[in-house]
Description:
Layout: H1 10-15, H2 24-43, H3 52-55, H4 66-91, H5 95-125, H6 130-154, H7 164-187
Amino acid sequence: xxxxxxxxxxxxxxxxxxxxxxxxxxxxxxxxxxxxxxxxxxxxxxxxxxxxxxxxxxxxxxxxxxxxxxxxxxxxxxxxxxxxxxxxxxxxxxxxxxxxxxxxxxxxxxxxxxxxxxxxxxxxxxxxxxxxxxxxxxxxxxxxxxxxxxxxxxxxxxxxxxxxxxxxxxxxxxxxxxxxxxxxxxxx
Length: 188
């Protein structure tokens, strides 16, 4: 990220304005990949089992384990969610706001990826009871989800559409529904 952001430090990266920024798309892609990878590493230990139809698939003699299944599910989740977000902004006639949206969300997910890395290190290198810590993970991710909604609603860049019903539509269809679908895919 240091090379992509032209040797900006963390404070400069987080506080830069949209019009002063460069390389927004590579920053967004890198941050999304790191977030998807660390989230997959963290939650793969809690997936009860790989679904039978996925476990039976063999590509070149290999089959997916819990981590592989989780990584593919989370990566597809973010890909579909980003595509639908792009279509949402284009369909309401606010296509120029999409670039500002992913610029701002990159900063949120950048900080989240640091927190996920810390959780992964703590989870795998310290003696933690996985059954007890799962409840704390649920509270943590619920707090992060609610904070993200308020972050998007009240950000100074005004990244969500102006009309309240578009905000409500975005939050319900592109924030809440995909999380529930991912939860159902991974844990049921």
